[in-house]
TrEMBL record:
Site label Important for catalytic activity, positions: 213
Keyword annotations: Cell inner membrane, Cell membrane, Cell wall biogenesis/degradation, Lyase, Membrane, Transmembrane, Transmembrane helix
Protein name: Endolytic murein transglycosylase
Catalytic activity annotation: a peptidoglycan chain = a peptidoglycan chain with N-acetyl-1,6-anhydromuramyl-[peptide] at the reducing end + a peptidoglycan chain with N-acetylglucosamine at the non-reducing end
A single cellular component GO annotation: plasma membrane
Lineage, highest ranks first: Bacteria, Pseudomonadati, Pseudomonadota, Betaproteobacteria, Neisseriales
Amino acid sequence: MLKKFLKWSASLLVLLAGVWAFLLFAPKTNEQTYRMRVEKNQGLSAVSRKLAEDDVIYNRHVLLATAYLLGVHNRLHSGSYKLPKQVSAWSILQRLHKGRPDAVTIRITEGMRFAQMRNIINKTDDILHETAGWSNEKLLKHIDPDILHTHPEGLFFPDTYEIDTDSSDIQIYKLAYRTMQKNLQTAWDERQSGLPYKTPYELLIMASLIEKETAHEADRKHVAAVFVNRLAIGMRLQTDPTIIYGMGDSYTGRIRKSDIRRDTPYNTYTRNGLTPTPIALPGKAALEAAAHPSSAKYLYFVSKMDNTGLSQFSHTLEEHNAAVRKYILKK
């Protein structure tokens, strides 16, 4: 009798183990991919209940019990997960414990305008576009209630950012803003003495001008020196990117003589000093160049118009005119 009981018990255990294994390891086929969202501090019980309600797994109790047996029930990584059409409870458990949530990558490059940054973020799939209809002023106030600026240009650091799928776009703006404030403060604190900037914001403006003038490491500090030297003697900066920025949507790829003569707040051919705001999103190298211009006494530069993209720098107008004839007029 005992032998029969033991044999029956063993058979039952084998059967239960088989059922358990099937419910845990067998992939369940669903009609489409499934987006699983795990909130911060959310437990596996709530997650498994939602999976069972949406018919993604065979049995939530098997998933829960396995997690408790392995001691991983309270070690979930919050975020959004995209599950394939065929997925097992075991795969889901492993993904929650060892994997990482799906992330969206957004690349903001140096020299972009803030309007371009907003356009990229607004067109990014798989994130919540909470700010899509907001004005720039509302966005800035949401990010920093104490902010003194109403114009967003230059206040956001260009970089590659990652956020969890289904997260709000406001996270990108907050991170880019905080990153710029950190890098700008570092550049300001470590700047060399004698520079013509009264505030970190003026250094930021200068960095944006440098960013738009050159992307070459060899030229940045010399471009910064040209602008600093001009400011020191009261000479206008006369940099084309400021004209382009002031033209706004009317710029079609060409600057005419009439554009140079037309006065706007950003036209450094008609106005002295720095522009009222940055004209782009400067990167770290441009910030460092603004804080540490070269010691050269250059006052002019012109593109060499070759495959290097480098510039020719000059101390005097005579030298500059000779460089223009050589590199631009090809005489």
